[in-house]
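User: I'm putting together a teaching handout on how multi-component assemblies are represented. Below are the sequence lines for each component of a complex, exactly as they appear in our records. Could you produce the 3D structure of the whole assembly as structure tokens, so the students can see both representations side by side? Please keep the chain order the same as the input.
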Amino acid sequence: MMKNQTYCVIMAGGGGIRFWPVSRTARPKQFLDMLGTGKTFLRSTFERFASFIPAENFLVVTNAAHKELALEQLPELTERQILTEPLGRNTATCIAYAAFRLQATAPGAIMIVTPSDHLILNEAAFRDVVEEGVDFASTHDALVTIGVRPTRPATGYGYIQTGKSVGDSHLHQVRIFTEKPSAELAQAFLQSGDFVWNSGIFIWQTEAILRQLEKLMPDTYYLFRSAGAVFGTPQENDSIARIYPECRNISIDYAVMEQADNVYVRCGDFGWSDLGTWGSLYDYLPKDENGNTTGCEAVTFDTTDCLVRLPEGKLAVIDGLSDYIVVDTADALLICPKGTEQNIKRYIDAIKFHKGERHI
Amino acid sequence: MMKNQTYCVIMAGGGGIRFWPVSRTARPKQFLDMLGTGKTFLRSTFERFASFIPAENFLVVTNAAHKELALEQLPELTERQILTEPLGRNTATCIAYAAFRLQATAPGAIMIVTPSDHLILNEAAFRDVVEEGVDFASTHDALVTIGVRPTRPATGYGYIQTGKSVGDSHLHQVRIFTEKPSAELAQAFLQSGDFVWNSGIFIWQTEAILRQLEKLMPDTYYLFRSAGAVFGTPQENDSIARIYPECRNISIDYAVMEQADNVYVRCGDFGWSDLGTWGSLYDYLPKDENGNTTGCEAVTFDTTDCLVRLPEGKLAVIDGLSDYIVVDTADALLICPKGTEQNIKRYIDAIKFHKGERHI
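Assistant: Of course. Below is the structure of the complete assembly, with chains in the same order as your input.
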């Protein structure tokens, strides 16, 4: 693995309201320590890669409003390493931006692209998988995606059907991408043994992804290319402010991965979760003998399997709840059954409609 | 009714944790506006009587720690009118104290004794009942208690069985007092028609109650009498500090009303509740079409018949609760089924045991 040519692009542009009322537009999930580890997700993501990638080889793409939060979390980085988006345009545009920047400032780079807010429990196993992906990508015109062997028939994830393996490597060709399947389909995927979860972590040469963007998303590609020689210069922000609103709001999976013919998957078992809901967070939090999360001052009666989160110093008495989420913050309180927390978007919409933006 | 000889003694010594986490030892229920009327219970109680009793004829008995709260609520009163208890010794001792004070400073007074934290909806009807009680007490050596015609088989109240009526008055002799009956007994009481709720509001001549205290609670009576000529002087507080810890911790109902042979009851219908629990408060609060209380920023889904109370400016999203109490304050949150809020004492004990006194 060629250390000096391997770059890590951390996508930290998410709006992060899924953990409302703790996550807010002003401080989305990636800037929070939701698991009580003492580190934000962004910091944990950085440290996971910093063990084998030098700090100067990181780029973080985030909303302009969160630039200071990102620098605060990653003091090892310089301001130039924080790529700011004037508005969110999903992962395809984010990746195009990072690729154009790297093409200008680090020709010949290998890009690792990673979300900033996922959980990975076995960092050593993860590193082995990534390093093998980097080795493969550095010698092939390939788009490598990291797959996760499924442990349950999750309906909230994207699945990748693996095809033939490549030589004597652990990589496989990709047959098909399937977004969020039905429960029955997810069950069938799990049983078939050749479907893996799409982790959203990618590895490729900058040139390889740019070639696919030119072919599969030419509108966005030429918008960036028209910005010419500004990447890496003081004019970059002005160009981005002009380009971004014109770009398509589309994920890299839809725009490229599902279309390209040079996609490979490296599967791994490294204890992964996208921690997309309060319920998925519950699974990873320490719990007492009644299945209620610990770590806050809650006194419970006849209460089981609840996720309870309170501000520092706050006390709660909870009687007669099972399988609920109770999350309190200084200015907002959420109480909902654990199975319904995917309704958070609905809650947020109702709040905006009835109460305005103040608590979002 | 002899205005200048009629005095109103407001008992405001309650610890008031039944509305935890809103009521606290530092600010018990009587110093709170639980119904959102803009007035505390103490203030409402004062105004109820102030329409026919001059301000200088009020005494308020309260814990020494709450003297300033009482004066703040009742600026019409002077400091001398606030009788402070060094510790709570229940209503019998409170009434003995007030009676000895009045004997010293207003000989020949008629005392109206009232709790400070009850709800009375029909103030005109209430006033008629009280005035008739005062007229009767001023001409008889009688202990008059105000009864409330029951509207449901409540198990949380004391009941009085009425006997023969007295002349052509609306007063009745009292046959028996029964504290908190079983559900079956309460049903039988309701059906019989001659049981009324004991409101805890009493009317008598100072001399009449002192005679009964001497007879039925001589230990306490002589403790006060031994204080001699200090009542109404600057030495009163020192005497009280010495006397109070020695007094029996007993209610006037047990100590006197259930024993004395000159007890009469005047029944009324004036929309009374002791508002002793969150559930009883719920009945009197404005509600939306789903039966959830209004007046705070709660956005509800699949939620019915809940009492929700939030601090000013706080937002709550509540999904999937029916018949619950959700009360939030700056430093404590309560969530419990509406039927179990009589458990508050249990909650408080658990908090004290696990977390200390800070949130009580």
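A couple of points students might notice: The radius of gyration of chain B is 21 Å. Chain B has a mean pLDDT of 94.
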